[in-house]
Amino acid sequence: MMATSVRTISLAEEQQGLPYRGARFPSKFRRNFPRSKEGCLTCRTRRKKCDEVKPDCTLCRRSGRECSWPVIAKSDGPEETTASSNGKAGLQKEPAKEISHSRRRLMQSDFETASPAVVVGSKATKAMSPLRSSLTFGTLSQLDEVSRPSYEQYLAVTTFLLVRGRTSEGNPFINYVLPLAASDGLIMDCVLAIGGAHMSVLDAKNRQLEVVARGHYARALAGLRKVLAGQAGSTLGNAVEDKQVYVVLVLLLLCILEGIQGDVNGAVYHHLRATRQYVAPLAAKSRRPSPHKLQHIHGFLLEIYTVFALELAITPRGKLDDQPVDLDPFLESLAFLGEYKSCGFMLGFGHGLFGMIPEIAKLIEARRAENLDKEAPSSLYQSYRSLVSRLNSWDEFADVLEGDGLSPRYEQATAANIYRNALIIYLHAAFHDNLLDSPELVAEIEVRIDKMLPLCWAFYSGKSPLRRMMLWPVMVLASCCSKRHHVEAFRYGLNINPRAPGAVRETARVVQLLWEDKDPRAFGPRGLDWVMKKHGISISVC
């Protein structure tokens, strides 16, 4: 045995000096340059070689996956932005904490029951899998065990609650926001704050979740201050327009955060007021074709701003009653939203109806100023009656959006019908100091509630994404309930969803306070405003 081993070793030593006689390596196929790292995000997350064919690479096309590309502009300078570096550095400062089994089960169940129409087909659903399972590039690689659950929550649950309509572009909160967040720490902090705030709302007893979410929120505010002060650049580019888009994106993400966490101090009004000065130039540019590489982001931001501004303009403000929402002139016609591919993801119905809101809001503010001046004669009733007449004769089916991937006509018409009736009630409340003093008007409102309740339930049971636009009209209708079965129906509807964001929960709480208050002033939209002032709160129904 020993002799055989020695012979084998000596034979191996002799063969080491022999030349290689195998097949030659095909040197003509060998790369003489470093392999590119600019492939699509889908291939990067799956750790696959991407041939970088746009718009859909070969591998994604073969596997039937959605090919997602970064939509960022190259910075004019070689240095990274301070906001990005600060955001990355802040992602690993919290102590590790594992996500609970119940939390994972809740996230999984919500993802499985989410409407597939929001994601637009199975391709987008498949594309989310690598984003969830492999976080290996950009700021995603910086996520620790504390931040990762917030990202998972945003990706698997929160993004489906944010979209309020169908569109051929899929879910912009995934397809537009996440590629930017993967390369920018400030935007990633906004994403993590939104996901963390939603987790905190769903598990209010876990104070650690709130601490983590507030930490990301604080870093986002600090990063935004540096950008506004010129101490940090924009990942989108250094041009003036690029910085405007960047600031608007961060501010609107903060507005979304306030809605998710259910802010009752009116912070969303301040964010929206700061956004206004940057939005007007973007809206002006949308009137003509633009070669700008981030044009689709413009439409995404303008539609979010439009919905927030219009809804807040007609929402009772409570303790912020002396701070009205100023609406931009371009909101009087929403035809400009149709210029973008993402049209309909937030406002997927009734663009003509929503175009009347600036006129309604202006009339109600004038009526409020008239009430403050007790000696001024009323000169606004003619405009009030004219608006009510126009709303009563409004044809919902003539005001539907046409296009691929949008909600069906009957869903759009139903949503517009609910909103139209709520606007009529809101106008009645503005021009009557106490609705209960007008029995005929109360009877008319009860008839409208009887007609709208089945439509609201049909929306919820049908899982239409348009139902997420129904919070404002449901609040107005619920505030006028005087019958017990109406109250029970709205109470059940406002509290039925265990994954509802904070804005829904706070709205349900304010409406409950209204129902429990025995004061005759606690009725209708005026009663909502009175109750919020009484309790020192100001909710944001958007």
Question: How would you describe this structure to a colleague?
Answer:
Helix content is 58%, strand content 0%. The longest helix has 23 residues, at 439-461. The chain is globular. The protein contains 24 helices and no strands. It has two domains: 82-96 and 103-249, no CATH class; 264-535, no CATH class. It has helices at 2-15, 41-46, 58-63, 82-89, 101-113, 116-119, 121-133, 147-162, 172-175, 177-181, 185-202, 207-228, 240-261, 267-285, 295-313, 351-354, 357-372, 381-392, 409-430, 439-461, 471-479, 484-495, 502-516, 524-535. It has 542 residues and is mainly α.
In total, how many beta strands? 0
Characterize the biggest β-sheet: none
Question: Given the helix and strand composition, which structural class is it?
Answer: mainly alpha
Number of domains: 2
* Oligomeric organization of the protein chains: single chain
Strand content: under 5%
Estimated helix fraction: 55-70%
Total DSSP helices? 24
Report the end-to-end length measured between terminal Cα atoms: 84 Å
Radius of gyration: 28 Å
* Uncertain stretches: 1-6, 72-127
Average pLDDT taken over every residue: 81
Tell me the overall shape: globular
GO molecular function, one term: zinc ion binding
InterPro entries: Fun_TF (IPR021858), Zn2-C6_fun-type_DNA-bd_sf (IPR036864), Zn2Cys6_DnaBD (IPR001138)
Region (Disordered): 72-103
Pfam families: Fungal_trans_2, Zn_clus
